[in-house]
Structures are given as structure tokens and as C-alpha cells.
Amino acid sequence: MRKLIYVKILSTILMIATSKNQVMAQSKTETLIEKQDNPSIFYKTIEIKGQVIFYREAGRLDKPVILFLHGFPSSSRMWQPLLEKLAMDYHVIAPDYIGFGHSSQPGPESFTYTFDNLAEYIGKFITQLSLEKFILVQQDYGGPIGMRIAEKYPEKVQAIIIQNAVSHKEGLSPLWETRKAFWADKEKYYEAVKKNFISLEATRQRHIGSTPAPERINPDTYIDEYLFLNKPGMADIQLNLFYDYQSNVKSYPKWQEWLKKHQPEMLVIWGKYDPSFTVAGAWKYKDDVPKAEVHIVDGGHFALDEAEPEILRLMQQFLKRVTIER
């Protein structure tokens, strides 16, 4: 009995010490960020409901916040070039979702992989970092996660920047017809879709698309993603989440109503060589937000692969025009 009590006391002491160390480390990092004249990227983690969320952060804390939400099957790493270049003028933050990048990757038997659940964790991430106002940058999966955040925290969203993220059925290419078959009969198509999802050719095609200059795409991007998708258990994690993608399509009408009601400052940048999301999906945002800026660039689904300088310029011009309140 005494041994059990001793173990419990020791465990409590260790928990308090660990928590104190985390707070001290966070405070030290914030001090470093605040003193930066030439900002560096910090690579950090935070624990939420027993799961670890990894995130990249740079820029002074008194600058306007930009929250970057990545797509599939990438991570916050996709935003690294923009984080480095925008950190002089903004406080930039880019998390990895649960199941992605360097964040926790529990198996689907112990974690519910839905967009509602991933958005809930990002919402708690926002709360824990005390982000009062921010500009949302959304790519691919970042779109449905970002729109859930916008619905829950409309008062926090100062502007929205979209890069190949769909909120209208018109944005879904014919490729989605076979994907809808998987939604209709998960068991029948699971293995076939799984095989395609983790194949090198499918991973490469997400980046190459229909670009006339595939030699401009750094193969490291899709090879790294291919290796990530072929980690033990990862295919099942991603297939469970992709099965839930149908919930996003069903939510398109309410997201369109949200946009019509709130009329956010909005920039839409679209890579025209995207095999999954059509250019029509970019222009449909103007039906909801007539003042939205829409720019079609020479790039694919991951337009930063080919059009990073242009995208950076468009974002900087847009951000300067947007009225920001800290």
C-alpha cells in the first residue's frame, strides 16, 4: 500500500515538473521570437487531449497572425518557404493535423479520423495559443478544416486566403466520380482505393497534374509523401479520413451561406494544372463573395511547387490591403 502511494506521489511530482518545464520552454521561445529582427522558424509541439500537435512558428508576437492549414498528404512543411518570407511582417503559424507530419499518429482503432475531429483539435490549438485574430490560409484539406474553424470562430477570422481548396461541387473534377463509389460502398472499394492512395504514381500525379513542365517539380516533394503514406498503418489512417471527405461535400451549401453572410476579405489563388480541383471551383467563390480576388496561376494542386514567387507577391499585396486588428 505504501509502495503504491509512493508511486502515485512520484508520478504527480514528475507531471508537475514536466508541465513546469514545458511552460518555461514556451516562455523562453516566446522571448526569442519577440526579440527577433531577422525571424527564424521555431519547431514546436503542444499537447492537446493526450495528442501532440507539431507546429512551425515565426515572427514577432505583436504582428498580425496568419494561420496556415495544409493539405493531403502533406504537412506544415509545404508552407516553409512562405513562413520564412512572411515572418518579417507577420506572426506565422502552421500546425500539422493529427495523423500528419510530426504530430501524433494514433491508429484508427483509437482515434476518430474525421474532419470534424481534426478541426476540433485545431480549434483547441487556437485556444491554447491564445490566438484572438488571424488570417486563414487554406489548401486542399485545409479548406474544410478552415471552414469549420470559420464557422466556430467567425469573430476571429480577419481574412481568408484559398489555394486549391474546394467549397463548391463545381470544383470537383471527374476523378471524384470513382471516389464517390468508395463513399457509397466502403468495404467493396477499400483495398482498391488504398492501393491507389499509397502508390508512387498517384502521389507523383498530385504534384505533376497536367503541368507542361514537370521538370520544374522537385521530386523530393512527392517521394517524401510516398514514404510517409507507406509508413505502417498510415494508409488506413488516411483512408478513414478520406471516407469522411463526403461530409465536406455535404457541408458546401452551409459554407457558401457562411461566406455570403460574413463577406470576408478573400484571396483565391488556383493552380490550373490541378487534376482533382477544377478552375471553375476558384471562380465559384465570387458567387458568394463578389469582392473576392481570384488569380489563376501556372501551377498544379500544390501550386507553390511552380509558382511560389507569384503566390508570395499576390499574398503580400493582398495582406497590405487588408485592415488588420491585433
From TrEMBL:
Residues 1-25 form the signal peptide. Residues 64-306 form the AB hydrolase-1 domain. One of its GO terms (molecular function) is epoxide hydrolase activity. InterPro entries: AB_hydrolase_1, AB_hydrolase_fold, Haloalkane_dehalogenase. Keywords: Signal. This is Pimeloyl-ACP methyl ester carboxylesterase. It comes from Pedobacter cryoconitis.
